[in-house]
Amino acid sequence: MAVLARAGAAEGLWLRAVRQSAGRGRQGRPWIAPPGNLSASTLVRLGRQDPPASTLALVAAVALQEAAETFVGGVQIKWPNDLLIGGAKLSGILLERHGDAVVIGFGLNLAHHPDAVDRPTTSIAAITGSAPDPDVFLATLADSFGRWLYRWRAEGLAPIRTRWLEKAHPIGAALSARLPDGTSFDGLFDGLDQQGALRLRLADGSVHVIHAADIFLIRD
């Protein structure tokens, strides 16, 4: 289903799937979303003066977090753009670049959540007892994304980075990073560098800057 959403300072085309049976997440993982959840995508055309395209991952994260906390409390961001409630995964975001365009796909557990074997998951319905209508949630998300996209273009990454850090798990949180080559690191969250990469403080006091990895919270 296609939805044309007027989003604050910007207007963009959003596409929402009522059901997703053969979706794709990070690193080609399958993503299945039954009716009642949110599966939506939008497209951003890159301009010459825009910040690096990779930092749209942070824009998407702060926009989705802002939209989600309209309906449920305790929503945190995990690098680069997963949302968590109480350490359980609520959503995922996937970005793909095609020339001067970036397609951003949002998947959020509104009414249902999967039984994942590698990490805890949750949904808004599981927390609050009821789920927002996907169209209502999408309208909220489109408005939030439009405003943050405008700030990204007008002010650069700085306000996005600040908001991201405000809504992330705290500095010092224990994390495990699994890099694309299979290398793993455990350490403590040390914020973001100026380009939005993850800073992970290792046991020897050194800081490892991570640009791509699967990140897991280490639970007590």
TrEMBL record:
It catalyses: biotin + L-lysyl-[protein] + ATP = N(6)-biotinyl-L-lysyl-[protein] + AMP + diphosphate + H(+). SUPFAM superfamilies: C-terminal domain of transcriptional repressors, Class II aaRS and biotin synthetases. Its EC number is 6.3.4.15. One of its GO terms (molecular function) is biotin--[biotin carboxyl-carrier protein] ligase activity. It comes from the Bacteria. It is an enzyme of class 6 (ligase). Keywords: ATP-binding, Biotin, Ligase, Nucleotide-binding. The keyword ATP-binding applies. Residues 1-153 form the BPL/LPL catalytic domain. InterPro entries: aa-tRNA-synth_II/BPL/LPL, Biotin_CoA_COase_ligase, BPL_C, BPL_LPL_catalytic, Transcriptional_repressor_C. NCBIfam families: birA_ligase. This is biotin--[biotin carboxyl-carrier protein] ligase. It comes from Sphingomonas abietis.
